[in-house]
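We close this part of the discussion by returning to an individual protein. The amino acid sequence and the backbone structure tokens for this protein are reproduced below:
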Amino acid sequence: MTGFASYNHLPKPEERQNDFGGVFGGPIIKDKTFFFFSYEGLRLRQPSTQESVVPDSPSRQQAPAAMQPYLNAFPVANGTELGAGLAQFNASYSNPSSLNAYSVRVDQVVNSKISLFGRYNYSPSNFSERGPLGPPYTVLSETEPISSSVQTLTLGLTELIKPEISNDLRANYSNQRVSESYAMDNFGGAVPLPGSDLFPSPYTSANGALLLYLAGAGEYGLGKLATDEQRQINVIDNLSVVKGSHQMKFGVDYRWLSPFSSPFQYRQFADFSGVTCPAPPASCSGYALSGTAALAEASAYQSDALLSRNLSLYGQDTWKVTPRLTVTYGLRWDVNPPLKGKNLANDPFTVTGLNDPATIALAPRGTPLYQTTYGNVAPRVGVAYQLGGAANWTSVLRGGVGVFYDLGSGSLGGASSYFPYSANNLFFNATFPLSPLNAAPPAITVNPPVSTIIVADPNLKLPRTYQWNIALEQSVGTSQSLSVTYIGALGRNLLRVTNLFNPNPNFGQVNLTDNTATSDYQALQLKFERRLSRGLQALASYTWSHSIDISSTDAFSNYLGTPSSVANPNTDRGNSDFDIRNAFTAGITYNLPSPQSNKIAHAAVGGWSVDSFIFARTAPPVDVVSGIVFADGIALYPRPDVVPGVPLVLYGAQYPGGKAFNSSAFTAPPSGQQGDFGRNVLRSFGAWQADVAFQRQFQLTEKVGLRFRGEFFNLFNHPNFGPPDNNLTDALFGLSTQTLASSLGSGGANGGFNPLYQIGGPRSIQLALKLVF
């Protein structure tokens, strides 16, 4: 049985509250039953420093009285005036988080041939992130509290049918529930909006939300975001048969997923083109000082429950042809029907007439989003051959090739936020706050006109990749090995989203998922590994890789896919969003020598060990875009045109990270067109970080020990920067405004990890004591 308590020390102790983590648990063994219970807890505050843009003080005073509370909800400027009614705001803060994890496991040996086990896990957590949308939308007086709970129950049965035949059966039920909301406070001198009187009756901030976007300054929200729940049942059965030199496996994998979404019942959104009118003012409508929003929206939403099912059958044989040659080959068959509702009332709609936007019409409810394909058979083969060599100088050559299918759902699950689960009224150049008539929620209907609908190509195929690799592994002595591996992959029929805008009077926007994306990847990997010997263990790897694709995401909200009405999809072909050419990692563990001849010296300095981790990589790409366009039948983030002879990047100590993109090198393209600047041409910042941990075991008595551990993350406090702002229309275009850790994650709010668990943050120190008894 073990007990554990830790104290976490971060750079600003005055900002920490209740920083305590722990784990305890213990086994209970009785006859043929094994019972184990454990608990882990963690309370942390992650510090961060960030720069944002806010309305300046004169603009707040000059705004109409009804608009002033909305401008005063931004922090008060404390930096350079930027013009156009904007100024800089810089601040430091910390994001609190907590995590608890409970686990119970029971193992039962029924007899010599049958054993059972069951495991239940419950993990509730809470996290609050300030400025959750990130640049260029960051508003630091806004927070996004997130509460999450994960429950899993797994049952297993293992049966030895015969000495050469065994069967493993696993069944799992998982439930994950996440609740998110928007909140505002007085951070940086902001005056938070009241939670009441912002919504029409009977809505409040408990079931409604207000979102306000001010171009150049960002976007904030107040009220409920959503409560989402994912329920999953997974059953896996694997039959293993050993016969002669063959080890065969046959199995089935069935997954049933039912996501449930309960968003805000009412939402109000206002979009302002800026704070002050342009000079000379063609029109002041749409600017905050005019008291009118360029675009305002009042929406109503309802809950939904969807259903996804996946079935896979597989067979595999590992054949030891000779003592040196082993061949593994097999087949996998995947059947993935399209997403549907749990019942007809929850079924998403699709459309007909996609070949001609003018003829697009709603299909009858219950029409599948696309036709299920049944020919998804994926063969795979791998070979391992031991070359000749001495006992301590053995070479092994490995290679493999295979086909792999992915799910066809992509971002179609996002349909729950749009038609037929919502309705909205749009107002252009509308007085804000909205009048009671304009603010009233629209009625949700299943009839046209349709504001936004998410659909798929009715002939959609499952995305597939062809993968291959060849590797040479060489042992160096008894404890070390070197390996060289080449990896290649071709992605075909990959999912990609294009956006049709106002294709006909019955549809405002149609987000279409199809198979028009491809990808190509190749990599060379070098790896050195040393198993623990003489107190030293090490693992180091270097990777050179290049990834090219037409689209790195199937998320419809990014509007990055170029519709075929504008240009061939190949115009988007370029470096993948995640393309990093060079990456190096190394981990080393060393048990320091303990003097044995002197008992006093052994007691003082013996038992120490050091762990270290080093990470370094070159810069990922950044896609420069020129605002969002809803025109000429498309919705698009267009790339700009390049100004000849002007440097694309500026260098100097005045820029965060030492460089910035040059806005003078780009101009906006003609409306509705792509510019001549390629996708993902420019690069962000490289990164490196060194982490070190020291630990020592103190043996207090024969049965009681105390382990001390100190961990230093980013030991040298090397600053790593997030990518520069990529939108040419933003005031901070080309500048990095946050650390790498903050840019990589958002605490789960938008699919990212908590920045605490990412590389690229400031130096932090964690001290821990573990009592073993």
About this structure: The chain is about 5% helix and 55% strand.
